Backbone:
């Protein structure tokens, strides 16, 4: 499971194993714990209960659950289109395309238990019920009641439903005032569901949902059924905007981002202090405005078909809720790229108007299948053309995260708490089962404060960070190379409200000089992250062995794109460094290449070739013996035992006058070759020259 949904995975697994999700989760938001009712956890219960019925391996089940449940959107969308007058066969062909759409597949790969996995199909069926209640059906009261019940379930399952329902209420209010054809039972049912959910569902009560835009518009809708006035629409709309921007709380980060995007014309200001902390935290990948490249990558074939059929769609579906949904889903996606799956549902009915001629289904299906099947290649092609497709990624890799979780489970105690950035907290608490200070749940206001404080403390002196760890009763802190290297608006430096790294801050010491930390010691290191623990007398120091954390390689990997290449494509990186180092006789490049080789299982002969290059530079007086020794030790640790290489190191150290270190290496050689008289003679001669 991805970091964002790891807590959902953990809770679903607890339910599947017959446990109860605790009211207060002690592993999250340490030391006080997290009131689980503040989040919507209906989906976790649903997944756990179903697994109890079907049995089998839980991870296998959850993968299937996350892939198959979203397909319920297909019958819901088909029924919705039929209710607008589309022929049943045409509607079925159109809806079935959802199964192969790239935006939908990206959210249903089985690797994350997203909230919309269950909520989105419920919302589509609710839309069908609303459309039926608004149309010519003879069972309007039934559909009105069903719409209210389904809205209540969707509100219980996904917090974003409140924003979607606000747009629905606005549409119905305008329609009621303008046309007067919104059935009173539908208005009462939907408004009642919103108000009852706001008062009865724990997470909505905590969020103050009774004063949310959706609740305000729900009340206005009921009034609008009896008082047809555009002043009512204007007043309710103004009150909704005010509630979003002024009340803060759970939705404060959403309002802060929207206001900032308007203020700064959808572009981050260079000075981060011009944004509120909530806006700096939330205005990142997933919540950006999509780039043209991303829009082309996700929607070009579907959007092209929709543009061809747009006029026909408008003429045939004019006056329906579906028309409003197309506009609303487009607006939502343009504000937050993460809502791409909603736009996929919005564009499908428009493109489906082309399928009034059935033969068009096959070529359209083929194009969409090819788009999804070759998505990585298409993304690469667009990137080569200069079109940004998505975020550039992170330094973290799955292998590194697996190693981190295994280390915590093996080398730490269950009650030892961990301070880390929010996207790692779920992995540590869900898989290693260690208490964490931050949470993956943005809607909790206290958690947002914790995350921002963590960012600020990383760029304060180490003593300040230690004091914060004391307040949070944390034994360990996880440092990531991103903290120092990522200087974009998505980096921790920007989140902390800074543009330059302060001298002497905790992040600088943890990255380049961990030995200078008085009370913290390095206990685990991966390619892009480190774990520091409270210093103890018995602890064994961990030797730094990754290129991003070596001060001597600072200039090579200071640029984030180079650092990203080093961890994401180490093979190409070490080949490039070796070639450049040979051409320019640059020992740092060669040394960095060697370290990448030994950490990424490169062929031994490649490493030997680079080792010979740095030895030659040392013999010409262009490379320090200390650095050369480290290169040899890194090589021997990865490819040893290599007795000839260790003997070469011993002789080089002896020539450099490092007799004690040379003697240690000679003894290692003799352990492997106890009868080698030549080596023993060299050691005896070395010891005769003076004390070690």
Residues:
């Amino acid at each position: 499971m991805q970091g964002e949904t790891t807590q959902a995975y953990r809770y679903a697994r607890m339910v599947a194993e017959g446990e109860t999700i605790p009211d207060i989760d002690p592993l999250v938001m340490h030391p006080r714990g997290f009131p689980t009712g503040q989040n919507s956890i209906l989906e976790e219960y649903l997944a756990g209960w179903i697994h109890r019925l079907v049995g089998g391996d839980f991870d296998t089940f959850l993968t299937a659950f996350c892939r198959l449940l979203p397909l319920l959107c297909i019958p819901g969308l088909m029924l919705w289109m039929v209710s607008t007058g589309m022929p049943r066969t045409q509607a079925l062909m159109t809806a079935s395309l959802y199964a192969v759409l790239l935006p939908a597949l990206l959210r249903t790969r089985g690797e994350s238990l997203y909230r919309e996995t269950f909520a989105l199909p419920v919302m589509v069926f609710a839309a069908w019920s609303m459309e039926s209640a608004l149309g010519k059906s003879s069972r309007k009261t039934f559909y009105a009641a069903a719409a209210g019940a389904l809205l209540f379930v969707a509100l219980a399952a996904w917090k974003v439903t409140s924003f979607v329902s606000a747009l629905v209420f606005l549409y119905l209010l305008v329609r009621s005032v303008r046309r007067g054809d919104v059935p009173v039972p539908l208005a009462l049912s939907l408004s009642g569901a919103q108000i009852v959910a706001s008062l009865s569902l724990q997470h909505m009560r905590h969020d103050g949902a009774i004063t949310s835009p959706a609740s305000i518009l729900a009340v206005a809708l009921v009034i609008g059924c009896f008082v047809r006035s555009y002043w009512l629409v204007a007043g309710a709309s103004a009150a909704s905007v005010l509630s979003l921007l002024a009340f803060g709380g759970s939705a404060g980060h959403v309002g802060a981002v929207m206001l900032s995007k308007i203020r700064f014309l959808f572009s981050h200001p260079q000075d981060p202090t011009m944004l509120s902390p909530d806006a700096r935290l939330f205005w990142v990948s997933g919540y950006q405005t999509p780039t043209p490249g991303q829009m082309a990558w996700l929607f070009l074939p579907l959007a092209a078909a929709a543009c061809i059929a747009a006029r026909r769609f408008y003429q045939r579906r004019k006056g329906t809720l579906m028309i409003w949904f197309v506009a609303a889903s487009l607006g939502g996606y343009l504000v937050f790229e993460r809502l791409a799956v909603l736009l996929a549902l919005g564009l499908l009915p428009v493109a489906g108007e082309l399928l009034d001629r059935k033969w068009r289904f096959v070529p359209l299906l083929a194009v969409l299948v090819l788009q999804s099947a070759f998505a990585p290649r298409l993304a690469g092609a667009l990137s080569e053309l200069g079109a940004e497709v998505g975020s550039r990624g992170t330094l973290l890799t799955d292998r590194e995260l697996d190693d981190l979780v295994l280390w915590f489970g093996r080398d730490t105690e269950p009650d030892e708490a961990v301070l880390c950035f929010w996207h790692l907290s779920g992995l540590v608490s869900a898989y290693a089962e260690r208490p964490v200070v931050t949470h993956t749940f943005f809607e909790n206001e206290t958690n947002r404060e914790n995350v921002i404080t963590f960012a600020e403390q990383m760029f304060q002196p180490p003593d300040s960070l230690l004091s914060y760890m004391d307040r949070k009763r944390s034994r360990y802190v996880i440092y990531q190379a991103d903290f120092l290297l990522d200087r974009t608006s998505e980096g921790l430096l920007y989140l902390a409200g800074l543009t330059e790294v302060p001298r002497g801050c905790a992040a600088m010491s943890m990255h380049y000089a961990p030995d200078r930390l008085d009370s913290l010691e390095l206990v685990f290191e991966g390619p892009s992250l480190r774990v520091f623990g409270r210093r103890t007398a018995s602890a064994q120091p961990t030797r730094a062995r990754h290129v991003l954390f070596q001060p001597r390689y600072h200039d090579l990997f200071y640029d984030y794109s180079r650092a990203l290449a080093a961890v994401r494509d180490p093979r190409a990186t070490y080949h490039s460094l070796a070639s450049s180092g040979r051409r320019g006789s640059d020992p740092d490049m060669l040394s960095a290449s060697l370290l990448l080789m030994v950490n990424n299982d490169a062929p031994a002969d490649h490493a030997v070739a680079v080792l010979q290059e740095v030895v030659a530079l040392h013999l010409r007086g262009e490379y320090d013996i200390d650095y050369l020794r480290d290169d040899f030790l890194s090589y021997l640790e990865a490819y040893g035992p290599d007795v000839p290489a260790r003997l070469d190191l011993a002789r080089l150290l002896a020539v450099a006058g490092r007799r004690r270190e040379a003697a240690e290496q000679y003894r290692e050689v003799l352990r492997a070759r106890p009868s080698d008289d030549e080596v023993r003679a060299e050691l005896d001669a070395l010891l005769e020259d003076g004390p070690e």
The chain has 36 helices and six strands. The mean pLDDT is 91.
